[in-house]
Write a structure and sequence with these properties.
Elements lengths: L1 H11 L2 E2 L2 H8 L3 H13 L3 E13 L1 H9 L2 H8 L5 E2 H8 L1 H13 L3 E3 L3 E4 L7 H10 L6 H9 L3 E13 L16 H6 L26 H15 L3 E2 L6 E3 H4 L31 H12 L14 H5 L1 E3 L4 H12 L6 E10 L11 E12 L3 H13 L6 E8 L2 E11 L4 E11 L1 H4 L8 E9 L1 H8 L14 H6 L9
Parallel strand pairs: 7-10
Antiparallel strand pairs: 1-6, 2-6, 3-5, 4-5, 8-9, 10-11, 11-15, 12-13, 13-14, 14-15
Length: 488
């Protein structure tokens, strides 16, 4: 109603001079008119200018005198023609009214004050104070002298009245249509978006308060893993290539081209770019030779190795592809013992369930040195996992194309009261290392595990989709413990 009144008035008139007067004329609350004017001004329907007026309002004491009369008038009317004793007058009026009334009445020369008796000095008086207070209450104006007198007695106080003068704005319309905030599919299908009025962006509006960030459990366990590797003297490998060639991901690791893991059902191959452009040709030739006919005491796989298979690009299935690149680069220099580790994402074309995702994080560590044995690998694994709180380990023989011997790693979990598989390990095969150019006495021991498995154990999560992906509960991220010490 208020908005219709403002817009309708401006349709026929140039300006609303005073919103207060306008509100009285329309019979609408001024507060309601002000709210509408502010809203219309924000959307440029109108242009509003502030109006400020100083008004006077009655104090609590002034309201009492406006209703009951001033103390001096009350005192004068309480004195009978024959006079009255001061004690009786006080009893009749009260100490407060008597004190104020007698002071003001004497100043007005209305009374004859004796030591014990009070009498009237004049026959009739008018209560001008009450009359002025009533005028203030009714919004009438008083002279400067009267205002000063009432103000001095603290019967009135100033009040700043705020209103607006209003005229048409650049977006004025007799009726406001609510601007749309979203462009929907239905708007596009019907074509009514052409007629829609959209809400403008307010670039000065403040957004929601920024809350402090929270570390994801995966990040905390990753940090813990990295600190363990660094404490053990390892260097981090660069893992920024999510896209890898089949050569570094499979062939350089002595994994045959007919291996099931190289099928599209298990690996994400890229459509564009589908193949790699550069590979170290002399090394490629040595890898081809070891696959086809063996060497260095190996019989190889005895098949026709195809370069086009090695050139195929894919999303890396393990960070061991990074290890193959690092070891090849290391073999091109005078030999130096090294310890490398990596923690990063890998991708596999697997069915998603409560314990598997198509992408996850792999933790990998390797040591390259002369004369390493399986006993060295087991000793390093005991050291590594004991730092995670798992001192009870078991090893089970396993098969990997690029390690021999190979071992699955099991740790006893005190909370679950059972043995849990926690990783895989082995010694890289000569068929992988010697074509790179390493001396024959150089050995590489390595192990790997997922980041998600130990994190789920630490934080009591039994569904990996609650830990990683779009279904993660943000409450878990905000409320999880600062740290977890040990896996058991």
């Amino acid at each position: 109603m208020a908005e219709e009144a403002v817009l309708g008035f401006l349709e026929k008139n140039e300006q609303i001079i005073d919103s207060g007067v306008f509100a009285e004329e329309q019979g609408i609350s001024h507060d309601e008119i002000v709210n509408v004017i502010k809203s219309l001004n924000g959307f440029r329907f109108v242009e509003a200018q502030d109006i400020k007026k100083e008004r006077w309002q009655l104090t609590d004491e002034g309201k009492t005198y406006a209703a009951n009369g001033s103390p001096e008038f009350q005192l004068f009317m309480a004195i009978p023609p024959e006079g009255i004793s001061i004690a009786e007058l006080k009893k009749k009026l009260g100490d407060s009214v008597f004190a104020i009334g007698s002071r003001q009445a004497n100043r007005n020369k209305w009374l004859e004050m004796g030591k014990s008796q009070v009498s009237r000095k004049v026959a009739h008086v008018d209560d001008n104070v009450k009359a002025m207070l009533v005028k203030i209450k009714d919004g009438e104006t008083l002279s400067k002298e009267d205002i000063t007198a009432l103000k001095g007695r603290k019967l009135i106080s100033p009040q700043i009245w705020k209103g607006y003068s209003v005229k048409k704005g650049p977006n004025y319309a007799p009726k406001r249509r609510k601007p749309a905030t979203d462009l929907t599919r239905e708007n596009l299908q019907k074509g009514d978006w052409k007629e829609m009025q959209f809400k403008e962006y307010n670039f000065s509006a403040k957004g929601l308060p920024v809350e402090g960030g929270c570390l994801h459990p995966l990040l905390k366990v990753r940090q813990q893993m990295q600190m363990i590797f660094l404490q053990m003297g390892f260097e981090e490998m660069p893992t920024n290539n999510f896209v890898e060639s089949s050569f570094w991901n499979f062939d350089a690791l002595f994994q045959p081209q007919q291996h099931p893991a190289r099928d599209s059902h298990d690996t994400f191959f890229l459509r564009e770019p589908s193949t790699t452009k550069t590979l170290p040709e002399d090394y490629v030739e040595r890898v081809k030779q070891i696959h086809e006919s063996g060497g260095h005491g190996s019989r190889g796989y005895g098949y026709d190795w195809k370069r086009e298979e090695a050139n195929k690009n894919l999303l890396r299935t393990h960070t061991t592809a990074v290890s193959s690149r690092m070891l090849y680069a290391l073999a091109q220099k005078p030999f130096e013992a090294k310890k490398y580790y990596s923690v990063d994402r890998v991708f596999r074309n697997e069915a998603v369930d409560r314990t598997h995702l198509a992408e996850f994080h792999q933790i990998e560590g390797l040591i390259c040195d002369r004369g390493l044995t399986l006993g060295d690998l087991q000793g390093v694994l005991y050291d590594f996992f004991s730092r995670l709180g798992m001192s009870k380990l078991r090893f089970k023989p396993a098969y990997n194309p690029y390690t021999e011997p190979s071992m699955e790693i099991f740790g006893y979990h005190e909370g679950f009261k059972k043995w849990v598989e926690i990783g895989n390990s082995g010694m890289f095969r000569p068929e992988m290392l010697l074509p790179m150019g390493f001396p024959e006495d150089v050995r590489v021991i390595a192990w790997g595990l997922s980041l998600e498995r130990p994190t789920m154990i630490l934080y009591g999560i039994d569904n990996i989709r609650d830990l990683f992906g779009h279904k993660v509960d943000l409450g878990l991220i905000k409320s999880n413990p600062i740290c977890r010490i040990g896996l058991n």
